[in-house]
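Input.
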Amino acid sequence: ELKRRLQPRYPSIAYVPDRFAVVVLSAVFAWKFGWDKQGLEILGDVRAEGRPFTVHFPFQLSMMQHVTDAFSTAFIIALLGFFESSVAAKSLGTGEGKVSNGLQNMTLSPNRELVALGVANVVGGLFMALPAFGGYGRSKVNASTGGKTPMSSVFLSLITVICTLFLLPYFYYIP
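Output.
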């Protein structure tokens, strides 16, 4: 709220990472004041197993017994993820030639969106990744901070990989 009120007077305040500061401060306070010993649940110890990016073939015979249990849930997740990605793309894209939130001249195709999500999730499935979709919140933040090309998503992905590989021990006290 404070950031929203100060932004008209100080436009550069949009680049202050307020959500990041909240996460870091909550982890520091949980560590300093021992909130985990008082009942607050924290992330705890997260360890990677083996080498990063190990490929696991998803169509092993030992996994086929779980297909009937997982199919309906997986189908609903895929459908909801596609709808969320389409809503994010249409609300932040240009649509009929108008400029919206910094994204200019972006043509949208639901078919391309579905193919891109499918390929991304099949490749991610080989590495035991969670399903990935274009979230509205992330797209809105990206547009409001000036990200106009897909390179902003590439940089975000690289930062996520670096955090996952090297910074996981520091996430221990995140509530």
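Residues 142 and 152 are 8 Å apart (CA to CA).
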